[in-house]
Amino acid sequence: MTTPLRIGLLGCGRIGVMHADLLSGRIDGLTLGAVYDVVGEAAERTGARYDAAVAASPDELIEHPEVDAVAICSSTDTHIDLLVQAAAAGKPVFIEKPLSLALDQVDRGIAAADAAGIPVQVGFNRRFDPSHRLVRDRVADGDVGDVHLVRITSRDPAPPPVSYIEVSGGIFLDMTIHDFDMARFVTGSEVVDVFAHASVRVDPAIGEAGDYDTLVVAMRHENGAITTIDNSRQAVYGYDQRVEVFGSGGMAASDNPLTTTSVYRNADGGQLSTVPYFFLDRYIPSYLAEWESFLSMVRDGTPTPVSLADGRAPLVLGLAAGLSVRESRLVRVDDIG
Ligand SMILES: NC(=O)c1ccc[n+]([C@@H]2O[C@H](COP(=O)([O-])OP(=O)(O)OC[C@H]3O[C@@H](n4cnc5c(N)ncnc54)[C@H](O)[C@@H]3O)[C@@H](O)[C@H]2O)c1
User: Fold this and answer.
1) Does residue 293 lie within any of the structural domains?
2) Do 234 and 103 fall within a single domain?
3) Within this chain, do residues 83 and 182 fall inside the same structural domain, yes or no?
4) CB of 13 closer than 6 A to ligand 1?
5) Whose CA is nearest to atom 4 of ligand 1?
C-alpha cells in the first residue's frame, strides 16, 4: 500500500474543520498531517479531534516533516501570503475560493506558484457536484448543441452575520463567485461583458454594511451564449442550487436533491421533502471528489481541474458586476483585467 499523502491544514474555521473531517479516514490515500490556525485554541481543538500535529506558525506547518501538501482554508485576506509561502517551500497547494479580493494579490500568487512550478487546485467544489458535472458533460459532448442560454440559481437559506458580511468582500466576491465559476465551467466559454442589478430585500443591516442580499447578473460569453445568475441570501425552503443550459440540440439541467424521497398527497395536492439546508448538507460528495482530484494531481501528475487562472477569472467577473451595479452600466471584462 502506498503511504497516504499528508495534508497540512491552514485555518481551522468552518470550512477548515470540514476539510479536516473529510481528510481523516474518508478518502483512501489522503490523511491530515498537521494543522495551524492563528487562533491557537481552534488549532489545538482540531488537532486533538483528528489526531494531527499542531504547528505553532504557518512556516512551521508548511515545513513540517509530516506535511506533503498544504490546504489553505483560512480567511480570504490571508490566502495569497500563504500561497507564496507554500510555493517557496515547493509544496503542492489546495486553496479555497476566493483566491483574494484584489487582482494584484492574485497575480502575485500566480507568479510565485508558476516560478516554483507547484501544482495548485482552487476550491471551486461545485464543479465536482455530480449533477452539475453531468450538465457540463452534456454540453462538452455536444448533446446540447450550440449553447444559447444558461440559467444559474443560487440561494442561501439564511444570511451570514453582518460581521461576516463586513469582511467578505461583498456578495459578488463571496457568494456569486461560485456562479461565475459555474458559468465558465458549464459553457467552456469566457465571459466578455457583465450587467448586474442588486438590491436589499432580506435584511436592511446588510445594506447598512454596504452590501446586497438579492441580485441578478446577465453575462455574454465569447461564443455568444448568455448566462443569467440569480442569488438570494435567504430562501425559506433551504439551499436552492440549480443550473440549466439550453441550446440548439436541447437542454441539460441539474436540480436540487431532496432530503428524503417521501411523497405525501391528499385531495388538495401533494408535498415533497425539503431540499438540503445548506452547503454542508448538499455538497459533501463534491468536496470528497475535489480531494480525490487533488490526490491524482499530486500523485499521478494529472492536470489541475481548477487552476489559478480559473480562480482569477471569477474574481474579475465579481469586480465587473460590482462596478456594473455602482455605475448602472454594462461592464466589459477586458476593462477590469
Ligand atoms: N468552497 C466552499 O464551499 C467554501 C465554503 C465556506 C468558506 N469558504 C472559503 O474558505 C475560507 C474560510 O472560510 P470560513 O467560512 O471557514 O471562515 P472562518 O472565519 O470560519 O474560518 C477562518 C479561519 O482562518 C483562521 N485564520 C485567520 N488568519 C489565519 C492565518 N494567517 N493562518 C491560519 N489561519 C488563519 C481564523 O482564525 C479562522 O479560524 C474563506 O476564503 C471562504 O470564502 C469556501
Assistant:
1) no
2) no
3) no
4) yes
5) 15
Compute the distance from residue 328 Cα to the ligand 1 centre, in Å. Answer: 32
Three cell numbers, residue 25:
479516514
Tell whether 143 is covered by a domain.
yes
Residue 308 is predicted with a pLDDT of 98
Q: 3-state DSSP call for residue 27?
A: coil
Report the alpha-carbon distance of residue 23 to residue 215 in Å, rounded.
Answer: 35
Q: Cell for 153?
A: 440559481
The pTM of the full predicted model, rounded to 2 decimals, is 0.97
Assess if residue 322 is contained within a domain: yes
The reply to whether ligand 1 has any atom less than 6 angstroms from the CB of 58 is yes
Quick check: CB of 100 below 6 Å from ligand 1?
no
Are the beta carbons of 70 and 8 closer than 8 angstroms?
yes
> Residue 1 has what pLDDT?
62
Cβ 311 under 6 angstroms from ligand 1: no
Coil, strand, or helix at residue 251?
Answer: strand
Domain C-terminal end among 118, 145, 177: 118
The last residue of one of the domains, among 83, 101, 118, is 118
pLDDT tens per residue across span 124-161 = 999 999 999 999 999 999 999 999 999 999 999 999 99
Q: In this predicted structure, what is the pLDDT of residue 2?
A: 80
Atom 15 in ligand 1: residue holding the nearest Cα = 14
Same-domain check for residues 172 and 96: no
Q: Is 128 in the pocket of ligand 1 (CB under 6 A)?
A: no
Length of the chain: 337
Tell me the C-alpha distance between 32 and 330, whole Å.
46
> Strand 226-232 vs strand 263-266: parallel, antiparallel, or unpaired?
unpaired
In the structure grid, which three cell numbers stand for residue 300, read together?
A: 499521478
Question: Which stretches of the chain score pLDDT less than 50?
Answer: none
Give the SS3 label for residue 198.
Answer: strand
